[in-house]
Amino acid sequence: xxxxxxxxxxxxxxxxxxxxxSSGTGYLxxxxxxxxxxxxxxxxxxxxxxxxxxGVKNNxxxxxxxxxxxxxxxxxxxxxxxxxxxxxTLRGTVRLHELDRKExxxxxxxxxxxxxxxxxGFGCRLIEAVSAAGFETGLIDRIYAGIDERNxxxxxxxxxxxxxxxxxxxxxxxxxxxxxxxxxx
Length: 185
Ligand SMILES: CC(C)(COP(=O)(O)OP(=O)(O)OC[C@H]1O[C@@H](n2cnc3c(N)ncnc32)[C@H](O)[C@@H]1OP(=O)(O)O)[C@@H](O)C(=O)NCCC(=O)NCCS
Description:
- The protein has a single domain, classed as 3-Layer(aba) Sandwich (Aminopeptidase).
- It contains 6 helices and 8 strands; from the N terminus they run ββααααβββαβαββ.
- The protein has helices at 38-43, 47-50, 54-57, 63-75, 122-136, 152-160, and strands at 16-19, 26-30, 80-86, 89-100, 105-112, 142-148, 164-173, 176-184.
- β3 and β4 form a beta hairpin.
- Bound molecules: coenzyme A.
């Protein structure tokens, strides 16, 4: 069950965020276990998709593991996991997490697991749409993204969506170094 204090506008499983697309109807909505598809499981085991998703690539992503992840996000008051549907097929996810009500910030992550969509502007539009909706909650003034310094595609995509690199090498972690990107109202 979704806790009441969750990021308000996302808290309803009926919430739908339209995503502009010339190649069909695109929208984001909160994922529930019944959304977990074979393509989602396959994508989360695709080395090209998970190259920079360290938590994902170091564990085999079975159907059960992903359902558990969806449930964890549903039950976490500080996270929301949205699925990107294009023409009624789940193509990727955008996640807001680590909501900090005191600092009025949240962190965003994205994985377009349908690689046929890469380079068509969806990543940028999804980040823009979720950022705008996040700000509309009135709960946050800034959104962070931690991006591996070697993940140039993601860095460029976040820059295009209005984020700027604020702290170079802000995160030293066991797999490498990540840059901290930020977008503010
Ligand atoms: C990163 C990701 C979200 C980008 O999505 P996308 O839909 O391909 O990105 P867009 O089409 O919106 O591209 C936005 C900008 O980034 C650039 N870009 C995209 N892929 C690129 C690449 N591989 N190398 C260089 N630039 C790239 C685009 O050219 C565009 O800039 P431009 O308009 O100046 O040309 C997608 O590749 C993905 O999900 N990757 C796997 C998971 C991942 O790495 N997530 C991020 C973790 S921090």
